[in-house]
Amino acid sequence: MRLMSQNNRIFTTRLQKGGALFEDMRRIVSLWSDEIAQDKPIAKIARSLSKSTVSRVKDTYIRAFRPRFIEGSPPNAWRYAKVLEEQKADIQVLRPFYYWITARAEAPLYEFVTEIVFPKSRAINHKIRVEEAAYWLTLRVREQGKSWSPTVTRKVAQGVLAALRDFGILEGTIKKHVSTIGLPPPAFALIAFLLHDMGASGRSLVQHPDWRIFLLGDIGVEHLFLECHQHGWLKYDSAGDLKRVDFPNISFLEYAHAVLG
């Protein structure tokens, strides 16, 4: 089943140049503004990143930050991430939030998790091999009428697995396996708020495909909604197939303050 929720499901090779780039993305988010976006941002980014060349800085901006945090879904996601940075959110909240933004912008990452890693998380064998990811990529790229070289395919596969490791979905340096780390309720609430703001409500929010990138099944999602309800961050009611989720009518900034304290 193909679960990717955004319109752009085209597979690109962007991840071969770097996986999560979590700390780099955090630094750029922290300095980003509308003013910088209107100017030439590379020089300012270069001062905040420990990259050896201007070319690497450009790669980080063009192949990672721009598609994820400016042109991704939600658009201009840097604004939301910056709210969390400025409120000194815990790393356990920031990491899954950045992962959600990244996965929605990178089709190979999103779909590998939902199609391969999610089922593995429910199986006895939790191991994920780069050869398995490369084979899956070959098939998926072929479906889109493309052809990547074996070298490029392997590099993208390695980038996907490295990103999943850095975001805590997988564990292990050489031999990787599915992690047992769950999604913290504050991160869940913040993502649910934005999904609701993007049009998901009720049952469509509870059963949203994005929850699978966190390896959450229906029971796990409902448990988190109930936990968030108990914290007073949202109101959740369930009666069979009928689901209702209500959020306070406030901005993301105000909601983040309420959730993070």
Provide a brief overview of the structure:
With 261 residues, the protein is mostly helical. The chain has helices at residues 22-31, 34-38, 42-48, 54-70, 78-86, 91-105, 107-121, 130-143, 150-166, 185-197, 202-206, 218-231, 252-260, and strands at residues 127-128, 170-171, 176-178, 235-239, 242-246.
Oligomer: single chain
Morphology call: globular
User: Largest sheet at a glance?
Assistant: 3 strands, antiparallel
| Alpha plus pi helix count | 13
Keywords:
three-stranded antiparallel beta sheet, 261 residues, 7% strand, mainly alpha, 13 helices, Arc Repressor Mutant, subunit A, 57% helix, two-stranded antiparallel ribbon, disordered N terminus, single chain, 3 domains
Structure in words:
This protein has 13 helices and five strands. The chain is mainly α and 261 residues long. The longest helix is centred in the first third of the chain and has 17 residues, at 54-70. It has a three-stranded antiparallel beta sheet with strand order 1-3-2. Strands 4-5 form a two-stranded antiparallel ribbon. It is globular and about 50 Å long. Helices cover 57% and strands 7% of the residues. The model is unreliable at 1-7 (pLDDT under 50). It folds into three domains: 14-102, no CATH class; 107-178; 185-260, Arc Repressor Mutant, subunit A (Orthogonal Bundle), CATH 1.10.10.
